[in-house]
Each structure stands twice: as C-alpha cells, then as structure tokens.
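Usage

Read records sequentially. Each one opens with the input sequence:
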Amino acid sequence: MKNVIVVCEAGISTSLLVKKLNELAQENEETFNIHSKSTEEGLDYVKKEPVDAVLLVPQIHHKEKEYKEVTNGKVLKVSVNDYNNMNAYSIFEQLNEAI
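and closes with the structure output:
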C-alpha cells in the first residue's frame, strides 16, 4: 500500500481532491492510502510515519524544502492549474509516475 498525504494550509480544502484521487486509485485497482493534512500536521506526520509521497497544494509550495528535509518520500508540488480545476486525473498521473 502506497501512503500519500495531500497537504494544504488547514487540511480542509483538499477533501474533494483526496476523494477524487482515492476514487481513481480504486478504479485503477491501485493500493493507495491518500489523506489530507494541514501544514503542521503534515510535517509531524511525515516525521513519524513513512510516506511514499507528499502532494503540496499551491498555497504551500514554499514549504517544499521543509518537507524534503524530514521525509524520504517524494515531495511533489500540485500545479496551480491542476488544483484550481481539481484535475485529479493529471495529479494522479503525476503521482503514479513519481512513485
């Protein structure tokens, strides 16, 4: 099972994206555990739990270095266009390529 977190400022605005990504994982018979975290929760989480990937939404792209310092998982920045359009297909494709 691939463990993935989607991180935003408060951990709330990503709920729709996480739902769509989990649906795509099921449709493609992929074994993903995808959930959202706030910025601070995410940092604490990756320090304690192994993750395969961290998806940073646009408003926290500036936190990329902090996440890379505390996890061995891939840290990916979700593009502004993909996030604004909730393009889960594009994000899921990028996630699959990365891990």
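Summary fields computed downstream for this record:
- Residues 7 and 37 are 5 Å apart (CA to CA).
- Residues 2-98 form a domain with the Rossmann fold fold (CATH 3.40.50.2300).
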